[in-house]
Amino acid sequence: MAKTSDVTKLNQKKNLTKEVTGYGAGSVDLVMSVDQVAKEAASISKNAPSVKALELLTDNQTFLSIKDLRAGYGKMEILHNFNLRIRKGQSLCLIGPNGAGKSTILHSIFGFTNIFSGKIEINGEDVTNLTPSQKLAKAGIAYILQDKSVFPQMTVEENLLMGGFLKGKPKEAQESAEMVFDKYSRLAERRNKPAGVLSGGERRLLEISRALVMQPDVLLVDEPSIGLEPRFIDMVFGILKDLQQKDGKTIIMVEQNAKKGLAFADLGYVLVSGETAIADEGNKLLDNPDVGRLFLGG
Predict the structure, then answer these.
(1) Could you give the CA distance from residue 278 to residue 213 in angstroms, rounded to a whole number?
(2) Which residues contact 271 (CB under 8 A, 6 or more apart)?
(3) What topology is assigned to 21-131+216-228+235-298 in CATH?
(4) Integer CA distances (angstroms), 26 to 15, 62, 191, in order
């Protein structure tokens, strides 16, 4: 009798396993471990896109380029001869398994990694070895961190003005802050309140707005939806879309919610082991069966 019970429990466990949520978003028929995803992703990277193919995705109007970049942390190399091309005013979403090098790309662009070889250029100018503060002041690059980058004890207005302090232009920051308040009533109503009282979505809006006070051309956005309720996720992506379409910002993002990121972005790169396995228009990657199976939940 005990043996029959054990068999029944085992079968029940197998049936439950089929309903487990997979990598990315949505449910899958079978559970895939991180190692399995990485292994299968590596198999689809044999036909990695050429530099020419990447340039075609920008209509041969590259604004920001990464050329044969080898980069990492300490002596550890994470990116291997990595290439990227994006046109001014385009958006790009980076997806892939954990450890693929997605955030390392953002870190490298902003100056947070060791560059072993290769180049990063904006509008034909080499910005590879500029410091983060120089990237902001001279190259117009702003980095919006994953989360919790506001100063909770400072007011909303003081947080915004920090953007001008970082760029060394406090007068311009005040003018830009007023423009932010004109644009986003949520922040205007709380301008004199400590940032710590804001909701998760409002804090994300403040982080994005503080970057805008720096008046960047390029926004690097790390996990914009992390820790947010669905209604706030939609709000944040709506703001980013507005910044791209109306203000002409170039956006490169890492987003764990692959479906949301690819639906937003003009372009998508699938990263595997520090290299690009697939590159295409965002909506085409949403329809790609390999991408769907591995990263979108079936």
Answers:
(1) 34
(2) 94, 95, 96, 100, 101, 102, 105, 277
(3) Rossmann fold (3.40.50)
(4) 17, 34, 38
pLDDT of residue 52: 97
Q: Which two tokens stand for residue 195?
A: 């940032």
Question: Domain coordinates of the chain in residue numbers?
Answer: 21-131+216-228+235-298, 147-215
Average pLDDT, the chain: 84
**Residue 65 pairs with which residues in a beta bridge?**
85, 121
- Smallest CA-to-CA distance from 82 within 128, 43, 133, 34 is with 128
DSSP-assigned beta bridge partners for residue 72: 77, 114
Q: Tokens 């490169």: give the residue.
A: 252
Structural tokens at position 271: 């990263």
Tokens 């390029």, residue?
218
Quick: pLDDT tens for 147-198.
Answer: 667 889 999 999 988 866 665 667 777 888 898 899 888 899 999 999 999 9
Is the pLDDT at 45 greater than 80, yes or no? no
pTM of the model: 0.82
